[in-house]
Amino acid sequence: MELKDIKGVGEKIESYLNKLGIYVPSDLLYNFPRDYEEFKSPKMILDLKVGAVETIKVKIVGNANVHRKGKLSITNISVTDGRNKMRASWFNIPYIANYLKSDKVIVLRGKISLSGGRLSIVQPKIYEVEKYNEIENTLSPIYQLTKGIKNESIKNFVRIVLDSKEEILKDYLPREYREKRNLAEYDFSIEHIHFPKDVNDMTVARKRLIYDELFIFSLGMFMFKEKSEKGEIDFLKNGSSKYIEKVLKNLGFELTKGQKDAVCEMVKDMKEGKIMNRLLEGDVGSGKTIVAFLVALYVVENGGQVAIMAPTEVLANQHYENLKKIVETNSLNVSVRLLTASKKAQERKSIIKDLENGSANILIGTHAIFGKDVKFKNLALVVTDEQHRFGVMQRKSLEEKAKAVNVLSMSATPIPRTLAMLLYADMQISRICEKPKNRIPIKNYVITEEKRNKAYELILREVSKGRQVYIICAAIDGESEETGSFANFKNVTDYAKEMKKIFKNRFVIESLTGRMKPKEKEEIMNRFKNGEISILVSTTVVEVGVDCKNATVIMVEDAGRFGLATLHQLRGRVGRGEYESYAIFVDTTNTENSRKRLQVIQNSNDGFFIAEEDLKLRGAGDFFGVKQSGAMEFNIADMYRDIDILKMAAEDAKKYINKEITFDYEHNKVLKCKLDEYIKNSYTI
Ligand code: ADP
Ligand code: MG
What we know:
The protein is an alpha/beta fold. The chain contains 22 helices and 20 strands.
């Protein structure tokens, strides 16, 4: 079966599906809903929440009133639930007035707004009472959308693929084993994640699919661990560390204790000839880069080559400049080269030649440094910065470049210890817990919407002084005419327009989202870094490692929507230079839970503490409230919320590797299939 075989999919729709990452019919099944529309029982008017999508059962009072406002036609009626009255409004469907007869009882579902002191339900869907009774308490999936494709269409396509029965893999978990873990069957789960009967049904399906994702993930990790621990790098044994000593002398600052410990741990590993596979965790600004540079210099001094991989050209450039400065200041005999996708073919050739003959010692770049044509004479250390976990496949491609190699991954996402031990069971972990002493602490403000203007005043003051500002929104555009939860969030596109109006085009205001092409993103980030943009309105894609010392304000809209670790990371974009800096979190939810969580952020600047608190405050079953980004992206699992399932999955994966549990031939075959697919997909270089 191909996408084109699905009724309703033509060339155009296929290209839209591709945009959503859907290329074959089974992709539709794994494209899980990002939320559900829940047809809850109607509420009383008194209980409605402004800004939320709500359902009411009401009687129409009097006749509809249709009037025009420019090109817009507006239809208003008054409705009552027997106790209170409110207004219902529709735009540009004047004929609806014929249907809205006085005294008729109907169910309305739409967004509640409050304007001029009047409560309204805006552009609500209308249901006959009996029709609504039928769907009451059911869930309907809401998918990620892109322009040109409707939620209803995706729903239909998924239904068709499900009904064809062709695309669902068999279950790899034997029944007795599944029952022991209280997990639903695979095909049941795939169907019911899309079309659950009720919330309970959805929860059961989710649990199984979360388990799957984490089990396969853990399996991949343990399999690789076994493999990578073999081997030895003998020329790094008992090496000399003169370069490190020299650089430390001329650094101009003293390393913090965490930095010193990290360098010692890594050098010790190498001096003993062990293969190192280490995660260096440290808050934004804790100074991880210099640690990596020192370790790299140890490797070079003792005859090895080093590759340092950054996720973007901006970051690669930044590292290149910094390391070159260190090498020059200390007159070290080290050749540092920069390789990015934008290098000309000829220069690329010369770099590759020098790597092959060993005259280039350290290569810094983006993923281009792992191109097939890039060969090293003696690669002994790979550093990845701000990177998601190095996939199984990336490591495989590394093995082709060197028999044995040390790996250092750096991450600015502090995660709780219990979690780190599960997610990075294949690595040793070093942590930098303190920040350099010379930092001015960031001023934090958690505000409600009424205070937004005050925040804009602060922003105006800062940009007028020549400083720069980030504004973060949860959504990209007003994409969803749907009633999904995103509809209520501020979005980058509209916000940027709004800001241009508010600041009367006096400053350069740009936007940045994950949906832009990598090239466009780089360009915007570069311009921001060069000070050409005053206000950047962005989703969370704004890069983790970029060091823009002139940025002094970050304002996060709908802050309650984000995980605490994400908020903390975002805050790390500012306060990197000599200026006083501000982080503003707009709490739009006004719930107790959200207030509590934001209080943690307001009162602490310690990433590890915040991560531990986040784990405590995260409620199991809180599926759509808060999404963590940055550390590790799963399709359906959330490492904080699902830590119990992760424990279970990791335990099972370990037992499977150790052959303490075994599956029969058929089940193993399906599992192998899943695992191959996982490994293939983790290939991102
Ligand atoms: P991150 O851990 O976020 O990658 P960086 O390595 O970019 O942090 O360091 C941030 C800044 O702090 C850099 O300008 C770096 O030179 C500086 N720095 C690093 N370590 C120290 C230290 N021990 N004392 C003072 N400044 C430091
Ligand atoms: Mg960094």
